[in-house]
Amino acid sequence: MPGLEVFHHTGNAPGGLASMFLIPSSETAIVALTNSFSLSDPTDFAGRLLLSAILGEAPPINFVGLSRLVQKNHLDSYSKLASKLEREKTTKPPSHPLVAYEGDYFNSLGNCFLRIKTQRNGLLMAVQDMEFTRYSLLPYDGDTFYWPANREQELCVERRAPWIWHGLHKIVFAVNHAGEVSELSWDFDPGAKPEVFKKSLDGPTKKRANL
Length: 211
Description:
Blueprint: E1 7-13, E2 16-23, E3 28-34, H1 42-54, H2 63-88, E4 103-106, E5 113-119, E6 122-127, E7 134-141, E8 144-146, H3 151-157, E9 170-175, E10 181-186, E11 195-199
Antiparallel strand pairs: 1-2, 2-3, 4-5, 4-11, 5-6, 6-7, 7-8, 8-9, 9-10, 10-11
């Protein structure tokens, strides 16, 4: 409808999706919520369908067909991510014993740290040392460690959002001129440069960094 003002916002987090539409001229609001993270975006599709009914217009697209296409593309993308990670994995071992990678690594602002500990045949990384943001890291390529891409494990067991990006799954450690592990980089955002975290020389942090 030409000239009609509609505000639209969507959101997602591990465990839920949301979509909101506001039509100021008629004081109408559409809010769609789910208590799970599906293979498509039912809140947005349902919201758009309701919006078209309220405005008296035919649905602009076939939402059932689109939902099936989105589901297929999502699962295919995760399979491709998992294959890429495994294909590029090498047999080059870490340059140091696992205990050398242990420590707290801080970002440049000092308001976030990653705690690295040894476990079994790899490392455990905990963001802010919190229980629900932990990653089991395995050797990948020298001083690079990773965790395999598995949607069901990440979403249903570890309560993470299914972020399809290979850089998110890899932690790259760096060694200083003295041959000591001094920092790590994490390429968790495809729209930005990898974040560098410097290893603290003061030992384990007793409390979390302030967010």
